[in-house]
Each structure stands twice: as structure tokens, then as C-alpha cells.
Amino acid sequence: MGMTRMMSWLAGILLFAVAALLFVRTANGQMALYIHPRYEVLMYGCGAVLFALAIICITMPIPMPRHSIQFLLIPVLFGLGIAPRALGADAIGHQSTALNQIAQRPQSAVANVSAVDTTQWNIYEWAVAASIDPLALKGKPVQIDGFVVRNSDMQLADNQFMLARYVLTCCVADAGGVGMHVQWANSASYHSDQWVRVEGVIDLYDVNGVMQPLVIAHTVAQITAPPKPYLVLQK
Q1: How far is the C-alpha of 234 from the C-alpha of 144, rounded, in Å?
Q2: For 124, phi and psi rounded to 5 degrees?
Q3: Which of 35-39, 112-116, 188-192 has the lowest mean pLDDT?
Q4: CB neighbours of 128 closer than 8 A, spacing ≥ 6?
Q5: Are 185 and 159 in contact (CB under 8 A)?
Q6: Would the CA dihedral through 192, 30, 170, 126 be positive or negative?
Q7: What's the whole-model pTM score?
Q8: Which of 8, 43, 99, 113 has its CA 20 to 30 A from that of 154?
Q9: Cβ atoms 149, 133 nearer than 8 A
């Protein structure tokens, strides 16, 4: 086998590997840890193109550019060597001053509190409603899922923790955190990144003259992290 044919075969095998990674990671939901679900079809398309290129390299050996094999090795090594992981409590801590800013926009679906079942709201919808009229939320029932955040910068009371999730508009690069303070007598038994379901009612507390919702929990139960942990905005 000549050098040109061998290099072309190697390139084809690596292209197959990259295509397989795209197909598998997208099919099992891991790609949703990086991008908005609406872009998953593009991942399948990219995988198909790479698969076709791999066939060309193997069946019709062509001279390969210098260092092409090394460049193709990079995505394969990263894909196999780095386990996909969702954003968690550490990232929330780094953007605590920007928490809930992604929800500072009107949304008709949550604007009329009296006309909806608030137990169906997720944390993002609560954050939007709080940005519209927090006083209207007091006493409303709540049932939300999220991961626990403990951070000294959040000035949490001993019987409180932050419940948070991330919201995607495009990909993790523009992900915004949304969260709510939860008051629960046994809050110390829950640690950061632990997923829980909280049921209770909404009270309000003052933050520099601005009223914010506080969940007075009736029950807090540990749950399994969802396969797709991010909330996504549909545009």
C-alpha cells in the first residue's frame, strides 16, 4: 500500500469516527448539553457529510494535505476523552449578579397569574412573572425542579438554598441562569448540584427595595437529573 493510499485510509477512518461521535452524541441526547435541540438536525447533517467524505477517502485515495491526520485526530481525541457534562452550580456562582437577567422580558403566557395553573410553571416562567409583577405571585402554589446552589455571595439564610436551572437560546455559550430562593428547615441536608423537586407556596422578600419571590417549601424531594437539564427558549 502506497503512502498516499495509507494516508487516505487513515483520514477516512478518522472521518468515520467523527461522524459516529456526532450521530451517537446527538441520538443519546448528549449534544443537548451543548446546543439548542433545534440544531440537532444540523449535527445529523454534518455527520452525514463526514460519512460521505470518509467513503470518498477510502474508495478513491487522494493526496492528503500535510498534517491533515493530526488535525482530524483532535476532534476524535476530544470526543472520546472528555465526557459531556451539563453546566451546574459552579457556573451559576460565577454569574450570580446576572441571575435571572435572561428572564427580563415580557411573556404573555405567564403575564396573567390568575388565569394559569402556576404549579405547571418552571423556574424560568416564575422568573419572567417576577419581572412583570412580583406582588401578584404571593401565596401562589409552586412545584419546580432544579439543582441546588450554595454560594456565599448569594447571602442565603441558614434555612435557605437556591434552586436553579439554565436556559438556552442557542448554545451553552449564551446560557443564562434562573433561580429562586427556597426556604426549608432541612436545607443543610442538600448540597450543590443535587437535583430536587420543591413544592410549596410563594412569599416575597425585599432585595434593595425590590420584592422577589421566595418559595416556602412544604416538601423537598431528591430526583434524578433529567437527560436534558436545560430549559430552552423557542423563537
Answers
A1: 20
A2: -60, -45
A3: 112-116
A4: 103, 105, 106, 107, 110
A5: yes
A6: negative
A7: 0.79
A8: 113
A9: no
